Amino acid sequence: MVKGVTFAFRNHHHVCQRKKIIEIQDWKYYDLEDEGLGMGNVLSQYGYYNDQGKGYNSTKNLLSDESDESVESDESEESDEYIKFLNACEKGYINFVQMNLMAKKVNINAQCKSKQPSTPLHIAIHNSDIELLELLLKYKADPRVEDTGKMTTALHRLCLSISKVMSNRQRDIVLNMIKLVLNYQTNVNEEDKLHVAPVFGLFDYQVHKNTFDSEDKRKMFQYLQKDILKMLLKAGVEVTSESKQERTLLDLVISSCSSRDGVVQIEMRDEVGIEMIELLLQHEVDVTAKSRCVEMRDFYSPLHLAVNRYNFDAVKKLCQLHPNVSTIRFNKLLLNARPRHVMPTAEIALNLINIMMTLSDNNYQFDVSKDLAMIDFLIGTDDVYYGPKQFLSVLAFGSLERIRKFFDLALSRDEEHLIKTTRKYLAIVLKCEMHKSQEMMDFLLKKANVVGDSKGYLNDFNIDLELQRMKSLKISKKASLYDVCKLHPKQAYFDVLINSDYRSIVRSAEFDQMFPQCAGIIRGHLVRAEVNAWCDLTVVTLAELHYDLTDAASQQLINYASYEDKLSWAKQIQALRKDVY
């Protein structure tokens, strides 16, 4: 022991046993940082070994005592040392970590059950610390060691963490970390204790579902999925493997690309998804391998699942391989359950029409008795209001060629139910003049006349009576927004407020062109309603936080205040510089 060298040591209340004094390099770290890892201010609490400080004499005696009779084993001290090492990893103290690794003082692959993440490698991944990750791997950290909490290896954790990426910088860090891990992990198909290979973490919907809040987040997430999938395939991922739910990689790619929660698009495109499918095809994925579909409780081919998930781009790509389309069916359960929370109605209708045409080009024979679920969904069978909403979206956004093909296909079936609902729809469209061009008008009129002449019992259908019902103040919530706008524009904004599909239509350029006057009225009401809601929230916040009012008192304040008063208060609170309304 050398006098004059600064040491920090523990407060020795138990001087009867020898304490383990850590090497000089470690205590230099404490001296420089002025704070111990998780121990508070070491310099002020525990003193120094330089002829002064509390506990100096007792510590000196312990150090000079050569007898081992009083020495007792102290397993908790070793645990404390490892925890300090993990804390250093958490705080990014690279020099301290490296000195411990060089001295071989810690088991770099040990799991600490009292901390999460429980290994140095998982801490580096959790903190996106690529420098620490590289250092640990260099000193033989095993990427196959699992975290005690989530039971995942380093590669599993990286694949599951991609939904947290919010910037290009974070994206580059994740990709570089995966490259590092792959350099040290020879088997990329090694499963964790839950029997899941790392690649399936890329497509875990429950983990990544929040990435579909906006189109920008979804695109960044999907590009990152593709880049990582490409790296894993190059490293030797087995394309024949299945997830714990017995789903194939191809199915998961198609399903992931079909998720569009809350995202509004005029026409859904899936370029990145197609690139991922092409990657799997390059590695000779089996396009006929069936995958379990939870909703349908059975096993189906990738093409069948792509059809029933409205992924037209995937259907088109798979049909280029000339698959057997005879077993494809439009599942009523999926058509009724998924559309409302997957994508807007207009997208569903367009995708289904495109899918029908693509399957027809591949010699698919439509069986009305089995495929009527899809046609029912597009046309609507419950009442007069439900049908127009679906097809008016198609009229607003679809191409003339596709619409013609659809009507030709639908009306070629000698089905009383199908013809009746189509006749009802066409009559409303014609009566309300909800068409895009004279060419479309002539086409619809011709179809309506053909249907009307072919079935005499449809002559009793009273379109004027139906329109009169729609003019009443009690407009059904299921009424087409276009119907409402044409007949009752001042009432339409109520339906817009409660229907996300209506909102997407109102904000589209096509809506302005079709209903210019109505668009202004509805948007005016919408702006006022949104400002009113914003004012209410702002005033309540002010009342509760600044005036310590209860919820009831805040609501009374809002109820008695006028719209102008609330708007004035809200502007003052937020210090707005321009008029909101």
TrEMBL record:
This is PRANC domain-containing protein. ANK repeats lie at residues 116-148. Coiled coil: none annotated. The keyword Ribonucleoprotein does not apply. It comes from Trichogramma kaykai. Keywords: ANK repeat. It comes from the Eukaryota. Pfam families: Ank_2. InterPro entries: Ankyrin_rpt (IPR002110), Ankyrin_rpt-contain_sf (IPR036770).
